[in-house]
Structures are given as C-alpha cells and as structure tokens.
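Input sequence (270 aa), recorded before submission:
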Amino acid sequence: MSVVLVTGCSSGFGQAIALGFASRGDTVIATMRRPEQARAELTGFGPNLIVEPLDVADARSREAIIELVLARFGQLDVLVNNAGVSGTAPLEELPEDVHRSIFETNYFGPVALMQLALPVMRTQRAGRMITVSSVASVSTPALRGAYSASKHAIDAAAAVFDIEGRAFGIRAPTVLPGFFVTAIRDNALIKQVSAAYAAIEAGFAANSGHAAAAETDLTSVVNAVLAAALDPDPPQRIVVGRGFAEKIEPIVLAMNANHAWELQRSGIDV
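Predicted structure, token format:
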C-alpha cells in the first residue's frame, strides 16, 4: 500500500479523495489549514487516515508536513495537490493582494510541494504528483480571470514536472473536473462585480448554465485521481464531468497529443 498526502481535505474533492485512498488501505495524510474542521469526521474513518495541518501558501508549513510524513512513514508515494481558492471579479477591478493570494494557493504552493516531494520520489525511483485542477485551466471564463490564469499556470508546471520526472519513475498527471458542487465558490476570496460589469455577469450566468448542471456526486473525480495514481501510463490531463467538461475534452486531447510531442522534443522515449 502507498503513503498518500492530500491537500485541501476540509471538504469537497480533497475529503472525498482522502477517503477514496484510505478505503483501498493506503496510508493517507489528509491536510487542511484548520484541521478541527474535519478531524472528527476523517479520523473516524480508520487508523490509516490521519489529519494534519497544512497551509499550502506557507513555506514553513509545507516543509513541516513533508518532514512529518518522512519521519513517521519513511516514504511518500503519492502527492495530491487539491487545495485551491477562487474569486469572482473583473480583472480590471481585482485587487493585487487578492490576485497574488489566488496564485499563492493555486500555483506557487502546489509547485513548491512538488519541489519538496520530487527528491523523495526520485530516491525511491517512483512516485505520483497529481494535481486536481479545473476545466478553467483550458478556458477563460469572464470574471474569473485570476482563477483561470492560476489554473493555466499550474497545468503547464505539472506538465513540465511530468516530462522531467519520467526518468526517475515519477509522473505528474492533472485531473480537470467540470462543474461540481463543492465549497470553493462559497469560500471565494472575492465576489466583487461593479455596475460597469453587471451586464457581463448576467450574460455569463445566463449562458453558462453551470449552476443548474453542477454535479453533486464526486465519485467520478475520486476515481479519476485513483486512476491517475494507479495507471502505469496515465494521460497527462484527465477531464471529468458532463456538459461543459465534455466540450473541453477535444481541446484536452489535443493538448495531450502536444505533450507527447514535447516529450519527444525533450529526447524522452514515449
């Protein structure tokens, strides 16, 4: 069985993914900024699931969790970068501090965790670094520019980690969920749309239809993450969900084909 570190486990995808790995018998370290939010629920699952604090945007917190995992278990087989934040605002009106906070959680934090995990996995000659991203990584929705840009960025970084890690038995696939019911919208760092952008906000709401189509069952996302961890040769990007996600899939297939070309361009045998 594997030792699995999952971020953003207070609810939603992270919590479901942690339980999915634990149900297989894997040792799971489920992390979140405020463990009291879910400690009772998650630790009640069984002894192979432990809850620990982690703020992915804090360097010392990231270092401490990797140190804890290695001290307690001596290995790290799977890292699931799931923690993320969103915001709703036109880019013109987005405060710089909020913009930077979104990138700290959605891009810089996950990249830094992969930088910490990679030497461990390289020594093991095996490992998976999975990013739970969003279909927003390949789309550009109005009023969600910072979120989308951060997801574009982490998608590119994960793809490079995947190329560079192959020589050491390490893969870094990305799971792209469509519209699912989680707490990410409720916990958005900003919801600020001025009168100047009211028509765009109304148009986006009328044309996207995401609220009505949002899926409540997170099983497909959990299964996609498990597949990314267990498949001997997972695709770089895995789209999950119906409706809008299905429209994104042809774009992702083309991006995966480009990833294969990048591997060849880097001199890596695929």
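Checked by second reader. The radius of gyration is 18 Å.
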